[in-house]
């Protein structure tokens, strides 16, 4: 295999990995503060992408056709609305079930995911068909041999990286982050220290959902196609990535996302049999990894087994 | 009181029976017919177009004063998922008041459902599924199909593309019966016509990312990328080809011949080719009649590629019920003897497997955001050129 081709596979894999990592970060944040698994996460991502897409259509309808303004509008609306949706889900579905078994939260959010998915399919105009997401980023490309690098892919990768660094800084360097970490470590003590527990939970769910919305818009910009079912597999993969990395640990989630993408790419490229089995291969390795390290590759300091 | 009641009660009963009796005699008996297709999910645009067309056939029949029965259409959504399809097929077939069925766009669903129709003796006609095995894989006399199969489609497609001068192909197909069938027949006819297949990828029908497969394809640098599958995947593959800078011609099958493929791919749709059984609507014997009636009925969705077939299949079932009465066995027998039956898609003649033998295949190309019949396009007269020619 020549170097150009190898480079191409690496860029493809990085792109996938970035998206998975962004989704996984949400799962791990939610688990960190409340020890719950919010299965509607992938569908929140999808709703965010559709919110962004609607914004694009709306901006087009009122005559704004500057790609940069459109992009900013799409991102702001998608991120803000999903942060709100995430907080609402936390307030009305997750917090009331706080003292119930975790399985209940998992089931409730799993069902909520189906509701969101079906709502877009049935109530969004022509929602059951794939939609063409606009290319709002410059599409210049550089070709070196068999290696083709597009400006939009580079911008998306850098954007994803900035979001991850942003979340890292927020968690580790700000008062809000300190509060989130305090709640994650010990809810009761955090409350005693005067931390508004409920507010922190809502903010964390808002943050995780906002990151998912960003991943959704990124997905739309990269593939130029969105559909009501896009969140389903992304949710499952993001969840698996968070588990491999170690639920509750942000670096674990990022690592897990990239591992999963690498496995998928490897499955499609290097295995002798048809690429039809690449997901089977990737998930089989995930099962093996979980069996080997049940608490994840980078476990929480005080780990709880799920 | 006692005496009065004794004498009046039978009288009243008689009067009521008489009143009811005349009421029934004046109205026509209601007969149920059913339609099954994917009304939600990725290929629902085609399904809804088919349902509207079948409904149109029923509406027109009910408006006809000469019709012997009043028809009621039962519609069910298969979601293009075999497991859902089998459930609703059983539901429809088990309802003895349903006499005939027009069903299935998705071959994978049809394959699971035909056994059920046979078991319940429900006569049916397929309106869109193209896998040969739906009719040829069994001896069930209940199963018929008004549209052609993918055998004819790929035979024409392979010859057409090699005639254009293309030499090498990479095939991507979904791993359902539908995609695998296309892969099998296209490969067979392509080799016969001297084309070379450089690689063949099977992919799950819900895959999002094709960059790994396409990067491999790019390395092989084929003249054509052939895709055997339905619209949602087709849209993704076409869009991702562009991301990776692949300049090969994109060739689809009947499964992407829908307006939603063009909506999904935008400018990238230009020059994509696909093949479809039957002639285009405006060239069909009853095409003009069909599109006028369809418009007049006020449906908001397009009839899509297979609408005329759904309309013809439903009409055929209704013709049968008019002729032999609302009886499943009699209708099956009636359908078994169909030869040169007039319909908007041309004459229908069933062979001994219930397959319509008329199989005109029309090549289409997307030009300026519309599916255009190849012969009428600027690509045919040389004004525009397909990729790589």
How would you describe this structure to a colleague?
- Chain B: One of its GO terms (biological process) is amino acid transport.
- Chain B: InterPro entries: Leu-bd, Leu_Ile_Val-bd, Peripla_BP_I.
- Chain B: Belongs to the leucine-binding protein family.
- Chain B: This is Amino acid/amide ABC transporter substrate-binding protein (HAAT family).
- Chain B: Keywords: Amino-acid transport, Signal, Transport.
- The complex is a heterodimer of chains A (about 300) and B (about 400).
- Chain A has 11 helices and 4 strands; from the N terminus they run ααααβββααααβααα.
- With about 300 residues, chain A is mainly alpha-helical.
- Chain A has a domain at about 15-125 and about 200-290.
- In chain A, strands 1-4 form a two-stranded antiparallel sheet.
- In chain A, helix 9 packs across helix 10.
- The longest helix of chain A is centred in the first third of the chain and has 32 residues, at about 5-35.
- The mean pLDDT of chain A is about 90.
- Chain B is an alpha/beta fold and about 400 residues long.
- Chain B has 2 domains: about 30-150 and about 280-360, Rossmann fold (3-Layer(aba) Sandwich), CATH 3.40.50; about 150-275 and about 365-375, Rossmann fold.
- Chain B is about 45% helix and about 15% strand.
- Chain B has 13 helices and 12 strands.
- Chain B has helices at about 1-25, 45-65, 80-95, 105-120, 135, 150-165, 175-190, 210-220, 230-245, 260-265, 285-295, 305-325, 330-335, and strands at about 30-35, 70-75, 100-105, 125, 145, 170-175, 195-205, 225-230, 250, 275, 360-365, 370-375.
- In chain B, the strands form 3 sheets. Chain B has a 5-stranded parallel β-sheet with strand order 2-1-3-4-5. Chain B has a 4-stranded parallel β-sheet with strand order 7-6-8-9. A 3-stranded antiparallel β-sheet of chain B has the order 10-11-12, with helices on one face.
- In chain B, strand 1, helix 2 and strand 2 (about 70-75) form a beta-alpha-beta unit.
- The longest helix of chain B has 25 residues, at about 1-25.
- The interface of A and B includes residues 5, 121, 148, 230 and 269 of A.
């Amino acid at each position: 295999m020549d170097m150009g081709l190898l480079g191409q596979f690496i860029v493809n894999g990085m792109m996938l990995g970035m998206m998975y990592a962004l989704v996984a970060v949400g799962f791990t944040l939610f688990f960190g503060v409340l020890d719950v698994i919010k299965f509607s996460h992938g569908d929140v991502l999808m709703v965010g992408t559709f919110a962004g897409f609607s914004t694009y259509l709306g901006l087009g309808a009122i005559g704004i056709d500057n790609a940069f303004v459109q992009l900013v509008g799409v991102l702001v609306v998608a991120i803000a609305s999903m942060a709100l949706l995430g907080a609402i889900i936390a307030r009305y579905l997750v917090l009331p079930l706080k003292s119930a078994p975790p399985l209940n939260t998992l089931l409730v959010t799993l069902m909520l995911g189906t509701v969101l998915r079906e709502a877009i399919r049935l109530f969004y105009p022509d929602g059951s068909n794939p939609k063409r997401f606009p290319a709002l980023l410059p599409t210049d490309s550089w070709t070196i041999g068999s290696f083709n690098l597009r400006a939009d892919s580079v911008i998306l990768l850098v954007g994803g990286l900035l979001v991850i660094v942003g979340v890292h800084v927020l968690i580790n360097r700000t008062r809000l982050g300190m509060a989130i970490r305090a709640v994650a470590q010990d809810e009761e003590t955090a409350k005693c220290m005067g931390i508004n527990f409920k507010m922190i939970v809502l903010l964390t769910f808002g943050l995780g959902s906002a990151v998912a919305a960003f991943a959704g818009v990124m997905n739309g910009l990269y593939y130029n196609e969105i559909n009501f079912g896009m969140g389903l597999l992304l949710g499952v993969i993001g969840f698996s990535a968070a588990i491999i990395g170690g639920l509750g640990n942000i670096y674990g989630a990022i690592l897990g996302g990239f591992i999963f993408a690498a496995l998928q790419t490897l499955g499609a490229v290097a295995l002798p049999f048809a690429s039809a089995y690449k997901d089977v291969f990737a998930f089989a390795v995930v099962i093996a990894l979980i069996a080997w390290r049940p608490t994840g590759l980078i476990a929480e300091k005080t780990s709880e087994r799920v | 009181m006692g005496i009065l009641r004794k004498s009046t009660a039978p009288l009243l009963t008689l009067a009521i029976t008489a009143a009811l009796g005349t009421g029934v005699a004046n109205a026509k008996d209601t007969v149920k017919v059913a339609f099954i297709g994917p009304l939600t999910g990725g290929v629902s645009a085609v399904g809804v177009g088919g349902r509207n067309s079948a409904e149109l056939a029923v509406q027109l029949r009910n408006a006809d004063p000469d019709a012997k029965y009043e028809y009621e259409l039962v519609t069910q959504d298969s979601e293009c998922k075999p497991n859902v399809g089998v459930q609703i097929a059983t539901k429809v077939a088990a309802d003895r008041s349903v006499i005939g069925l027009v069903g299935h766009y998705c071959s994978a669903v049809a394959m699971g459902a035909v056994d059920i129709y046979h078991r319940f003796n429900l006569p049916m006609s397929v309106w869109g599924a193209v896998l040969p095995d739906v009719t040829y894989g069994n001896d069930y006399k209940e199963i018929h199909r008004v549209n052609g199969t993918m055998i004819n489609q790929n035979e024409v497609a392979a010859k057409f593309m090699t005639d254009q001068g293309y030499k090498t192909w990479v095939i991507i197909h979904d791993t359902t019966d539908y995609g695998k069938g296309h892969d099998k027949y296209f490969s067979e006819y392509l080799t016969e016509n001297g084309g070379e297949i450089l690689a063949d990828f099977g992919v799950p029908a819900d895959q999002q990312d094709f960059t790994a497969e396409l990067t491999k394809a790019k390395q092989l640098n084929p003249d054509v990328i052939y895709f055997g599958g339905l619209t949602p995947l087709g849209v993704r593959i076409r869009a991702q080809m562009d991301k990776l800078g692949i300049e090969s011609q994109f060739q689809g099958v009947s499964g992407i011949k829908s307006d939603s493929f063009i909506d999904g791919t935008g400018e990238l749709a230009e020059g994509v080719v696909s093949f479809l059984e039957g002639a285009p609507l405006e060239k069909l014997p009853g095409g003009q009649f069909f599109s006028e009636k369809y418009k007049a009925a006020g449906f908001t969705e397009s009839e899509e590629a297979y609408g005329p077939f759904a309309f013809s299949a439903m009409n055929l079932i209704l013709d049968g019920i008019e002729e032999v009465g609302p009886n499943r066995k009699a209708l099956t027998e009636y359908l078994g003897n169909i030869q040169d039956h007039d319909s908007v898609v041309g004459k229908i003649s069933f062979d001994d497997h219930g397959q319509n033998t008329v199989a005109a295949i029309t090549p289409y190309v997307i030009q300026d955001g519309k599916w255009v019949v190849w012969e009428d396009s600027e690509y045919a007269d040389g004004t525009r050129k397909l990729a790589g020619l």
